[in-house]
Amino acid sequence: MDEEPTVDAFMRHLQVCLDEAKTIADGKEREQRLWQLESALQEAIIYKNRVEELARHGIDPVRLVAGDDHHTPAPAPKKVEALMTGHVHCSTCRAVLEPDLAFCPACGTQK
Length: 111
Known about the structure:
2 domains, two-stranded antiparallel ribbon
């Protein structure tokens, strides 16, 4: 195969699978399989339309976006949250503290 499969080829494949699924003898299994295939077909249509819309606006739909290296870390959990979850977190590195240790197992900070 020289070319990569396209969304259109995938949609045709799903249509063939839909036709085949209609012959499943067990009613519950047939209904579940038809539902799965119809959902996949709808998602393929949504994806195809979205890619075409982005292309019309000159946006590359498969361009990888670099992560934000300058994000602020999540705030440390509050005492109430720690009590509710049953875990106490290190004030330095936010790792979960073991109740039987007097220090953080991740960074060594004393409790």
